[in-house]
């Protein structure tokens, strides 16, 4: 019973982690070039590094039958962490859509005579 619960937590962590990495990258691609996008990419790289390390640890525990009682708390934390990140990424996407940032930047470039790059 305990092993099944831990395996479910590991699988949930992997699903939320993969969603966070993929959707985070897609949200960053909606940003225009500049400091914000560069900063967001650095954060995304850190998230990717953290996720790959967590994935490797998860695979070891998933197949290695690690009986650590602290693993339950670790994976509960990971699930909450990824859920919060997914929400933050969703809010970033909605904010860019709500304020129509891409359209406003295009209009500013056209007004400056730079074209619609």
Description:
- This protein has one domain.
- The chain contains four helices and no strands.
- The chain has helices at 2-29, 35-64, 70-98, 101-112.
- Helix 1 (2-29) runs parallel beside helix 3.
- The longest helix has 30 residues, at 35-64.
- Helices cover 85% and strands 0% of the residues.
- By secondary structure, it is mainly alpha-helical.
What keywords describe this structure?
single chain; 117 residues; mainly alpha; 4 helices; 85% helix
What order do the helices and strands come in, and which of them pair?
Elements (H helix, E strand, L loop, with lengths): L1 H28 L5 H30 L5 H29 L2 H12 L5
Helix pairs in contact: 1-2, 1-3
User: Span between N and C termini?
Assistant: 57 Å
Give a quick account of the main beta sheet: strands, pairing sense, barrel closure. none
The average pLDDT score comes to 77
Question: For the CA atoms, what is the radius of gyration?
Answer: 19 Å
The helix content is: over 70%
Kindly name the structural category: mainly alpha
Question: Strand portion, in percent?
Answer: under 5%
Give the beta-strand count.
0
Q: Total number of helical segments? A: 4
Shape: elongated
The total tally of domains equals 1
State the order of secondary-structure elements, H for helix, E for strand: HHHH
Low-confidence stretches: none
């Amino acid at each position: 019973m305990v092993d099944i619960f831990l395996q479910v937590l590991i699988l949930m962590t992997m699903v939320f982690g993969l969603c966070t990495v993929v959707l985070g990258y897609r949200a960053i691609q909606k940003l225009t070039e500049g400091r914000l996008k560069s900063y967001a990419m650095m954060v995304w790289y850190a998230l990717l590094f953290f996720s790959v390390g967590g994935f490797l640890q998860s695979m070891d525990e998933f197949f290695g039958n690690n009986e650590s009682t602290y693993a339950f708390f670790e994976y509960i934390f990971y699930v909450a962490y990824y859920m919060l990140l997914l929400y933050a990424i969703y809010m970033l996407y909605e904010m860019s859509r709500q304020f129509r940032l891409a359209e406003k930047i295009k209009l500013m470039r056209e007004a400056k005579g730079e074209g619609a790059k």
